[in-house]
Amino acid sequence: MISVEHLKKSFGTVEVLKDVNIEIQPQEVVVVIGPSGSGKSTFLRCLNGLEIPTGGKITIIGKEITHPKTNIHQVCQKVGMVFQRFNLFHHLTVLENITIGPRKVLKMSKEESEKFAMQLLEKVGLAHKANSYPDELSGGQQQRVAIARALAMKPDVMLFDEPTSALDPEMVGEVLKVMKDLAKEGMTMVVVTHEMGFAKEVGDRVLFMDGGYIIEEGKPEELFNNPKHERTKSFLGKILH
Amino acid sequence: MNSLEIMAHAFPQLFRALGTTVEFSLIAIILGCIIGLIAALFRLSRFRILQAISWLYVEVFRGTPLLVQLIFIALGLPTVIPLNDWFGPRVYPYIAAAIGLALNEGAYITEIIRAGILSVDRGQSEAAHSIGMTRFQAMVHIILPQAFKRMIPPLVNQFAQTIKDTSLLAPIAIVELLYTGQIIVSENFAGFQIYGEVALLYLVIIFTLTRFAGYLERRLQIDKR
Ligand SMILES: Nc1ncnc2c1ncn2[C@@H]1O[C@H](COP(=O)(O)OP(=O)(O)O)[C@@H](O)[C@H]1O
Ligand SMILES: [Mg+2]
């Protein structure tokens, strides 16, 4: 479903991703962990075209997005992204936030897009907030709307960049629940998070990134309990306490 | 005649001239907004050549006095291009005045729109990209609507400035408010009353404009956030 080969990304002279390689299967849930600044966000952003790699090859659903002739917008509308800071459109209502993609990009009718949006809002438990503005919602609610907005594009893959780390602790659970449901429904997901519970419950694989490389990968239990690399050990030691 | 009678006597003529002032202001504001939007988008585009054109335009028109620009277009250009023949010597000064004002206005509006667009958080365009919008769609549906609200106060300032700037059309013989005042004073020598009245009329329209803008801003704050 996603294949990344020798991915490199530099900002100016700073090489942030040095050589990232990974294959992600359909319906797989991959959790990415690693210290701040290790390139996790940059990696995700390369997967949906927010950053243009400086080297290597990314193929998503058979389309090579790193190829200059590929229409990045067409491929990337099938790759949903949920951001740490939600990034809901402040000038639109919750419902409009969700319908604007289907309407403007997929040219869906207003009725159809609203019907689908309401189903998605039901799913994330926020149907009663359809006509509110994002700034009237709590962080957890905003993040659930952001998930619904991404799902409205009927994505094949969902990327999450620390979706709960900007939230107050009491709101983390409601967002994780929506993500777990999604994982159980068979959505392919790449999730940057340090929520170990989530990784253990629905993660198929955990990647540990550091210094622009994937240092180690494995099944969640395996990697958390028996990390092989020194750097993984010391990192896990820090976040588990 | 006492002062009030002098002013009342001149009022119909000045009021008609005020119409010309308002017309030129509206033309300059509308064209200036269109030019400003295009130049701002040029400036923020990925294409170096468009960026350069926009930059040069803004620098030239903000870096030279409006009066010089107007005189150059109205009186300088016709010495090398037979514009007066093409449009007629009575019509061309009006065209020159409208174009000069609009270009000058556009340069300032470019900067206002550019600043407004840049003030919108980058996360908004990233989110737009992530749901498959093109840069253009993101600009139209996501960025500009949010930028617009923040642009209202500086835009209104600029519109008020434009109204005042139309008085610089007097030297190129456009019969607007100030020039009409000068004509009246040359007949009745009541400079104090007539120029005072001219100033008052400018004040009235600019005050109306800023009031309306305040109302608009409050409305937008209530309707949408
Ligand atoms: N747009 C950018 N310009 C320059 N440096 C950047 C940019 N984005 C990220 N970086 C740098 O790349 C490194 C990795 O960042 P990031 O991918 O956000 O790491 P993580 O998400 O793992 O914390 C950091 O050192 C950061 O400063
Ligand atoms: Mg990050």
What does this structure look like?
The complex is a heterodimer of chains A (241) and B (225). Chain A has 241 residues and is of the alpha/beta class. Chain A is 37% helix and 25% strand. Chain A is built from nine helices and ten strands. In chain A, a hairpin with a 2-residue loop joins strand 9 (205-210) and strand 10 (213-218). Chain A starts with a strand and ends with a helix. Chain B is mainly alpha-helical. Chain B has helices at 3-44, 48-62, 66-76, 83-87, 92-119, 122-130, 135-165, 177-188, 191-223. The longest helix of chain B is centred in the first third of the chain and has 42 residues, at 3-44. The radius of gyration of chain B is 21 Å and the shape is flat. The N and C termini of chain B lie far apart (56 Å). At the A-B interface, helix 2, strand 6, helix 3 and helix 5 of A face helix 6 and helix 7 of B. Adenosine-5'-diphosphate binds next to helix 1 of chain A.
What kind of assembly state do the chains in view correspond to? heterodimer
Structural class of chain A: alpha/beta
Percent helix of chain A, as a range, is: 25-40%
- pLDDT averaged residue by residue of chain A: 94
Q: Quick one: how many beta strands of chain A?
A: 10
What is the CATH homology-level superfamily of chain B?
A: MetI-like
If strands are numbered along the chain, what order do they take across the biggest sheet of chain A? Answer: 6-7-8-3-9-10
CATH C-level name of chain B: Mainly Alpha
What name does CATH use for the topology of chain B?
A: MetI-like fold
Catalogue the unreliable spans of chain A.
Answer: none
Gross geometry of chain A: globular
The secondary-structure element order of chain A is EEEHEEHEHHHEHEHEEHH
Distance between the termini of chain B: 56 Å
Tally of helical runs of chain A: 9
Q: What number of domains of chain B?
A: 1
